[in-house]
Write a structure and sequence with these properties.
The chain is an alpha+beta fold. It has one domain. The longest helix has 29 residues.
Length: 196
């Protein structure tokens, strides 16, 4: 297992390299079955990591569901995969139509009668790439930033976000568990092949 840049990855579980090589040579369906096994284990790990982050302080009240930025992938060229918060992918299916809650103010009758424009809805909507950006901020934190000055006078600071480290603390543990699951399934598969 390897961790870097917000990504925790399995770099090909090959404890029994000779048996793995033999299965790849003699069993045409093994590579497909093994990657399916890796995918299943990583999907469970991703679900557990996402669920932990969903209820973590700093994310639990996010109406745009930043916890969904946790993604997983299975490698095509080798046996392995990763769980990451670095996904740059942007797809329409990932979009969340977010509407800020509207409340009545004193003197207002019946709420807002003016529909949102298409542009307002677009600005308020949330994409997978945006979730990843927000989740990385929460993971690593931000520095104290100046609010700017006018006439040489400082107008205060914008504050800072303290690092939460939910992903970096949860993901390695869940990947270790996924590796164990893959190892057990691999051992069972080898035993099945040996026993005919």
């Amino acid at each position: 297992m390897e961790q870097s840049n917000g990504t925790v990855s399995i770099e090909g579980y090959t404890e029994n390299a000779q048996m793995l090589e033999r299965l790849l040579t003699n069993d045409a369906d093994f590579a497909k079955a093994y990657r399916k096994l890796i995918r299943k284990a990583l999907q469970e790990a991703r679900r557990r990591v996402s669920n932990d982050i969903k209820f973590a302080i700093g994310v639990n009240k996010d109406p745009r569901d930043a916890y969904k930025a946790v993604k997983m992938a299975v490698y095509k060229s080798m046996f392995g995969g990763n769980i990451s918060i670095l996904s740059r992918k942007k797809a329409g299916a990932w979009q969340t139509k977010y509407h800020e809650p509207r409340t009545l103010v004193a003197g207002q009758r019946g709420g807002n009668r003016v529909p949102m424009s298409a542009r307002t809805i677009q600005v308020n909507s949330y994409y997978g790439i945006d979730r990843g950006f927000i989740l990385r901020w929460l993971e690593d934190g931000t520095q104290l930033r100046s609010a700017g000055s006018r006439g040489g006078k400082l107008h205060g600071n914008r504050g800072r976000i303290s690092p939460k480290h939910e992903f970096s603390s949860d993901a390695p543990r869940e990947m270790e568990k996924a590796i164990g699951e893959i190892a057990d399934e691999f051992a069972a598969y080898i035993e099945q092949v040996v026993n005919g």
